[in-house]
Design goal:
Length: 187
């Protein structure tokens, strides 16, 4: 038997490339379908408003289970972080899970200073540590400096809230950085 000199690929030989959904509503519709859930999904022209239509009770329960399963580890980490901070008398009332990240939120300057000290911050010798309730910018810089060292590289955005000088705004961190933060606070 003589083999042909060149093989011409057919449509079956080419990999199928699924185009990624262009709109959030299309992405949600595809994810629900892949999970075996049946729900009408509608979205505006620019996906400014995506809506899920009525779900059958069984589909609603399955969707709730999928959400809990998908966020379980992050929610558990947020709970552990809240508990260990409370143990150090550090209040983080704005701690929330949003879009898979843990947002630490607004914190009193005194609590931010306590967090920095627990993480091992030592004020520079040229400037003593400020007394409680003072110098939010200094405490923010101190916390921003010690955080990556304590968590092994995770960064935390810290900003002074102009409208509330006694508060700092702490940014969001990913779940892995939050787990490393929990470990740093334990020791």
């Amino acid at each position: 038997m003589n083999a042909p000199d060149t093989l011409v690929p057919t449509a079956a030989d080419r990999p199928a490339h699924a185009a990624s959904p262009a709109h959030a509503s299309d992405e949600l519709r595809a994810a629900l379908s892949e999970a075996g859930l049946h729900a009408p999904v509608t979205g505006g022209a620019a996906d400014a408003d995506v809506r899920i239509g009525p779900l059958a009770p069984a589909d609603a329960r399955q969707l709730a289970r999928l959400i809990r399963t998908g966020t379980k580890r992050t929610l558990k980490t947020a709970r552990a972080l809240r508990e260990i901070c409370a143990g150090h008398r550090i209040e983080l009332p704005g701690l929330r899970v949003r879009q898979g990240r843990i947002t630490l939120g607004p914190v009193r300057v005194e609590d931010a200073a306590r967090l920095a000290r627990v993480l091992g911050a030592v004020p520079p010798a040229a400037r003593p540590a400020p007394p409680a309730g003072t110098d939010a910018a200094f405490v923010g810089a101190l916390l921003g400096h010690v955080f990556p060292e304590a968590t092994g590289g995770g960064a935390l955005s810290v900003s002074v809230r102009e409208e509330a000088p006694g508060l700092l705004e702490l940014g969001a961190i990913d779940a892995r950085t939050a787990r490393r933060l929990v470990r740093a606070l334990r020791f």
